[in-house]
Design a protein that fits this description.
heterodimer, A: 108 residues, alpha+beta, 5-stranded antiparallel beta sheet, 3 helices, 5 strands, 28% helix, globular, B: 228 residues, alpha/beta, Rossmann fold, 2 domains, 39% helix, elongated
């Protein structure tokens, strides 16, 4: 019944794991101010650094992918925080004026 | 996230069953909460917490529960758009609506119009609209848009839509065309339900091309959906 629109992050995670890849899921758990993506938004990442979806509209994706590779390696879930008061956030580029908390977990 | 849990979420979504994944952000432990069930072996949730998650699930809300470190991610069935009339505007509307996350079905019994060559991977239905609408059963997460400009095709679809909970009903055509449509449907006993039809369809953006008209329709649909 109808075609699902956006490529689905959860389906892609399952495909990656079936193909023998490691994979992690990043999810926006809370936001303050003008964050571009709503709570619940997903970014699916695999161990080759391929990713699908979005947690920020682009400004912190590369930092999240780097953390996700760590999570895949040690299996420990992490909660990441990015915000304008955080110098690192400026470095990774969250200059859009918001703050965001992201949970990253390995698919296992 | 355990693969088994991920697959169970996918199963629930495929079955159009609302489900929430509850995560303890401290430990990473997770469980599932359904409208009328629970599968949380790794997580101890109080009855009050389960109730709170179910309240959120009903409104598709995600977030952290109160001051706790419990994160709730609600998955609810996709909104649907049923487009009646596989016309030029329908091609652009289907593409825009897919991009906005709607499940799209284009209905037109004229097989020359409803072709894969014109609509790519969009789901096509060549049943007559009364049969198609009976099968697709529009609900409160469904929008129905008629574009065929032919009463034989549009009217039965509108009749079915007006007798459903569809959150949005729109019909292409000028005010004069709509006045005649209202006359016809009034004779079929639709009466006061007819005010639910957005006609002339779409926000008044001033656009003229088929894609611009499609954009104005989708814009109105978004506005109605979020009550803006």
């Amino acid at each position: 019944m109808g075609l699902a629109a956006t490529p689905d992050e959860l389906i892609r995670l399952d495909e990656w794991v079936r193909a023998g890849r490691q994979a992690a899921l990043a999810t926006v758990v809370s936001t303050w101010g003008s964050s571009p993506r709503p709570v619940g938004s997903h970014l699916a990442i695999n161990d080759q650094g391929d990713f699908l979806g979005s947690v920020s509209g682009g400004c912190i994706e590369s930092a999240v992918v780097a953390e996700a590779l760590e999570v895949m390696a040690d299996g420990e879930p992490r909660t990441l925080e990015f915000g304008v008061s955080d110098e690192e956030a400026w470095e990774v580029g969250l200059s859009c004026g918001g703050a965001i908390r992201i949970f990253v977990e390995r698919v296992e | 996230m355990k693969l088994a849990l991920l697959r169970e979420v996918q199963r629930a979504r495929a079955d159009k069953q609302p489900v929430a994944v509850v995560t303890d952000l401290g430990s990473g432990a997770q469980g599932l909460v359904y409208a009328d069930g629970l599968a949380a072996p790794d997580l101890s949730l109080t009855a009050a917490q389960v109730d709170a998650v179910r309240t959120w699930l009903r409104t598709a809300r995600s977030g952290t529960l109160g001051d706790s470190e419990l994160f709730v991610r609600s998955y609810v069935p996709d909104y649907r758009l049923l487009i009646v009339g596989a016309v030029h505007i329908a091609q652009a509307l289907a593409a825009l609506a897919l991009e906005c996350g709607y499940q799209v079905t284009v209905i037109d019994p004229r097989r020359a119009f409803a072709t894969a060559a014109r609509f790519g991977d969009v789901e096509l239905c060549t049943q007559w609209p009364d049969e198609a609408m009976a099968r697709l059963a529009p609900d409160a997460q469904t929008a129905v848009v008629t574009l065929a400009h032919d009463p034989k095709i549009d009217d039965p679809a509108l009749l079915a839509a007006l007798n459903s909970d569809a959150f949005y009903i729109g019909a292409l055509g000028s005010s004069r065309t709509h006045a005649r449509r209202v006359e016809r449907l009034t004779q079929q006993g639709l009466g006061e339900k007819l005010v639910r039809i957005h006609a002339p369809i779409g926000l008044q953006l001033g656009g003229r091309s088929h894609a611009e008209i499609a954009l104005s329709i989708l814009a109105q649909l978004v506005q109605v959906r979020y009550g803006a």
